[in-house]
Design a protein that fits this description.
The protein has about 190 residues and is of the alpha+beta class. The protein has four helices and eleven strands.
């Protein structure tokens, strides 16, 4: 009986050790594998997948795009550690309710933001500009809407750094039009 308990203990310890090595190896591999970075070109970048429920924007020159795994989020970084994130939310019904809710969502992500003024674009996007702080990073953000589209733009830079121009990003926003129905296109 002692022999089987000893064997059971050895098997249990070895099993835990193997799982720990696998999990630790996975995290170590993730830590040493660099995030792919694609230099930003002079082109529009698309937020959203569906025409009529997506927008394009232009990112600052000299920045790099990094993958997010989400069609509704674009992320750009610069060499100094600055970050620019744009997020699309569709189905907007009431901007006056949605904009403050977006700031609360940022706070859940440990980003302190408060509205400081208004902003708009020639393409019909309008909303509020805000100051943002996340730990030692500071910057600006904007929450703008057009019809059923809500776009949040957040730019943060490390202490003493220069962040992206959120106003320029908002001015570059363009809604991607929905395709015309086939009967209308044939006319």
């Amino acid at each position: 009986m002692t022999r089987s308990r000893t064997l059971d203990t050895v098997v249990a310890v070895l099993s835990v050790a193997v799982v720990a090595i696998l999990v630790g190896g996975w995290y170590a591999l993730g830590a040493v594998t660099p995030t792919p970075r694609t230099p930003v070109g002079d082109q529009p970048y698309r937020l959203g997948r569906t025409a009529g429920a997506s927008v394009t924007l232009r990112a600052p020159a000299g920045w790099d795009r990094v993958p997010t795994g989400d069609f509704d989020i674009l992320k750009f970084v610069d060499r100094s550690g600055g970050v620019l994130i744009a997020e699309l939310t569709t189905g907007l019904k009431d901007f006056a309710t949605a904009a403050p809710r977006r700031l609360r969502e940022l706070q859940y992500s440990h980003i302190d933001a408060h509205f400081t003024g208004a902003t708009s674009s020639d393409a019909g996007f309008a909303g509020d500009i805000c100051d943002a702080t996340a730990g030692a990073r500071t910057g600006t953000c904007a929450v703008v809407g057009r019809k059923s589209l809500l776009v949040t733009v957040l730019a943060l830079a490390p202490s003493g750094g220069q962040g992206a121009d959120v106003g320029a990003v908002v001015r570059s926003l363009r809604a991607v039009p929905a395709p015309r129905p086939a009967t209308e296109a044939a006319k």
